[in-house]
Specification:
Layout: H1 6-9, E1 27-32, H2 41-51, E2 61-64, E3 70-72, E4 90-96, H3 108-125, E5 130-133, H4 144-152, E6 189-190, E7 199-200, E8 207-208, E9 211-212, H5 213-226, H6 249-261, H7 272-280
Parallel strand pairs: 1-4, 1-5, 2-4, 6-7
Antiparallel strand pairs: 2-3, 8-9
The structure holds zinc ion.
Length: 284
Amino acid sequence: MDIISRAEWGARAPESRSTVPWSKRTVFMGHYSAASATQTPRQIQDYHMRVRGWSDIGYNFLINSVTGDLYEGRGWTVLGAHCADHNTESIGVCVIGKDQAGRQDVSDAARRAFKWLYDEANDRKGKRLTLLGHRDRGSTECPGDEIYAWLKAGLPIVGQPPATQPKPPAGAKPAPGTPIAFPLPSGWYFGPVTGPDYSVSGKYGRTFRGRTDRAWLQEWASQLARRGWSVGKGRSWLGKAGNDGIYGPEYRALALAFQKDQHLDQDGLIGVNSWNAAYRNPVT
Ligand SMILES: [Zn+2]
């Protein structure tokens, strides 16, 4: 994912700055602007510098709640101005937009950008940062109920709602076998061992609905084989390790190829949409 740099969004130069070493960063903090999603980072910066009298835009990063565009604010290691008394330990990320009750204001694209930035922060830190909302450390509604609930749930990405059942194109064959329901809890997926708790890799041998994670992941790849994919040791997919049920680069490559084939979001993670597509979508 690309971070839109300060130069690209036309930032004013900061009046002063001080840096914070990664060793002091322990928190990844979510905010929202509580204003229109059409607000630009430059408008927010102008407000922070001219009206609030700060040295620069207050946040370390910003994400548009509709487009998911990700903007550099002060960046990773510059002291921010987003949560009084907690700017040293916290990387502050503002979602540009507001929370309107009863509707999803933060798009899937914006959620993916936020999650990507959080994963990137953890990689750079070499350790998981604590996810907090501004309201955890200040007397404020920020970041609004929608973002706050999502932060507290650990940023699950559930993907797009299932599209209307696609009509089989001429010559397409119905999916082989009997559909099996997605075995993991809502919002979970088969993914890397380095991911959060809801990223199920098969390495820990966890049990879901009476079978191990490994058996379920093998089941999914076997379904792809029934659909005609060349899967297994020495074959085109999972050729090195075979269908061992332990998520790694080979399963990721297979998931990406299948998602591309099925016009799904291409994230390489096997969540409910990639699972269901294997059992329900016609073979084209
Ligand atoms: Zn805030």
